[in-house]
């Protein structure tokens, strides 16, 4: 397949540094039209709106909506001749099976696949040593491994027939360190999403309870994902070959994925359905 025009989107917002870094790299060889949320719409999954407001932006179009809104508006109206969708680069990794459905970045690629347009979701792993890392503004140079690997896949995956069997690629790259010692391209590994799951829910009293109020007191349930405290080579619970293991080992993870909802023949369900009216 030939790629000439690319629809670029994300979930961090159209002015995000990672999106601009990918845009500038791809624009050297491709016609790139950005259709991205006007602001941060992270972790919103495949949420879709009833309609969206769109305004012109120097990179394309800013949409007051979700990443999926952007793909639907883009592929069906604004950029219907796009050959490929690139989502990202997201500041923060999208690793593991349970994360993929939450990620706006990955959901944009999934939506493109339902349109029959191949896609690449690109994210950058930021070590979580600082609990406020997501507030830190990163320089474009820090995204270099993610940008270089995305550009490589855009340039080569279509002609290599990768999208004959994969609907989209989920790419996660390590961050470039501040010391500048990793100027060489990071190694790349084909991976599968980790199936490790460890979400917990913890119940406690809400801080919003008013002791003078007649209203019943409320409890608050907080969620914790312990994997982010275990993202070191010695602690990550995943074996080589998984996406999470790859980025911890300093590799670019590439997972070839297909759109969901495929089913295998289920003989037990067949027998159960046959018995429904008897």
Automatic annotation (TrEMBL):
Record's subcellular location: Cytoplasm
Region (Disordered): 193-278
Cofactor(s) the protein needs: a divalent metal cation
Segments forming domain Survival protein SurE-like phosphatase/nucleotidase: 6-179
Assigned GO CC terms: cytoplasm
GO MF annotation list: 5'-nucleotidase activity; metal ion binding; nucleotide binding
Acidic residues biased stretches: 207-217
Keyword tags: Cytoplasm, Hydrolase, Metal-binding, Nucleotide-binding
Reactions listed under catalytic activity: a ribonucleoside 5'-phosphate + H2O = a ribonucleoside + phosphate
EC code(s) of this entry: 3.1.3.5
UniProt: a divalent metal cation binding residues: 11-12, 42, 90
UniProt xrefs under InterPro entries: SurE, SurE-like_Pase/nucleotidase, SurE-like_sf
Compositionally biased intervals (Basic and acidic residues): 262-278
Cofactor notes: Binds 1 divalent metal cation per subunit.
Top EC class for this record: hydrolase
Pfam families: SurE
PANTHER family named among the record's database cross-references: 5'-NUCLEOTIDASE SURE, PHOSPHATASE, PUTATIVE (AFU_ORTHOLOGUE AFUA_4G01070)-RELATED
Function: Nucleotidase that shows phosphatase activity on nucleoside 5'-monophosphates.
Family: Belongs to the SurE nucleotidase family.
Protein name: 5'-nucleotidase SurE
UniProt source species: Halorubrum tibetense
Recorded name of the encoding gene: surE
């Amino acid at each position: 397949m030939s790629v000439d025009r690319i629809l670029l989107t994300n979930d961090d917002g159209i002015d995000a540094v990672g999106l601009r870094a990918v845009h500038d790299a791809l624009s050297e060889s491709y016609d790139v039209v950005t259709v991205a949320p006007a602001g941060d719409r992270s972790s919103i999954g495949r949420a879709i709106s009833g309609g969206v407001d769109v305004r012109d932006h120097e990179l394309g179009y800013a949409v007051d909506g979700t990443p999926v809104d952007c793909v639907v508006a883009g592929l069906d109206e604004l950029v219907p001749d796009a050959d490929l969708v690139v989502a990202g680069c997201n500041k923060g990794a999208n690793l593991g099976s349970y994360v993929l459905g939450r990620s706006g970045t990955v959901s944009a690629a999934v939506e493109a696949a339902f349109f029959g347009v191949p896609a690449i979701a690109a994210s950058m792993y930021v070590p979580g040593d600082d609990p406020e890392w997501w507030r830190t503004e990163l320089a474009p140079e820090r995204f270099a491994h993610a940008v270089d690997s995305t550009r490589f896949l855009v340039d080569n995956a279509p002609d290599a027939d990768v999208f004959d069997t994969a609907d989209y690629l989920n790419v996660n790259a390590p961050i470039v360190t501040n010391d500048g010692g990793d100027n060489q391209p990071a190694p790349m590994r084909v991976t599968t999403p980790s199936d490790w799951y460890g979400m917990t829910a913890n119940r406690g009293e809400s801080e919003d309870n008013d002791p003078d109020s007649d209203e019943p007191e409320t409890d608050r349930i907080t969620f914790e994902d312990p994997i982010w405290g275990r993202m070191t080579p010695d602690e990550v619970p995943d074996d080589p070959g998984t996406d999470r293991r790859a980025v911890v080992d300093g590799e670019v993870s590439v997972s070839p994925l297909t759109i969901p909802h495929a089913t295998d023949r289920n003989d037990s369900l067949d027998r159960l359905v046959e018995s429904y009216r008897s």
